[in-house]
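Long-time lurker. I teach an intro course on protein structure, and each term I like to show students one example going from raw sequence to a predicted 3D structure in token notation. This year I'd like something fresh instead of my usual example. Would anyone be willing to generate the tokens for the chain below so I can use it in lecture? Attribution to the forum is fine with me.
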Amino acid sequence: ITPAQGGYYYNNHQPVLGTLSTEEMESMRSVGDLVQVPEMEVEVFQQLQEEVGGWCSEIQEIPFEIGEIKFFDRHTGGVNVYFPSRNKSFSLHPAVYSEV
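-- Reply from a regular --
Happy to contribute to a lecture. Here you go:
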């Protein structure tokens, strides 16, 4: 990566994926926030999920669905997100969703 001409940004402002503690995640998101899983490569999604709650085939069907953060799992580092369209919760890696 090399510097380029353009706007200004804080080079060290954004966290490196996978380095946030549960406390830091909670400061960025809150219980009750609505989130959505964007489309991503299944292999990447699966690899991230293995770190927090494991993988099941049903998880790969949730991209673009909106869910609600229910709690932060301090043991695994995952975030429990409830998807009303499925009437089911999944423990998701914090890097696989974005706020709606």
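Some talking points for your students: The CA atoms of residues 29 and 70 lie 11 Å apart. The two ends are 30 Å apart (CA to CA).
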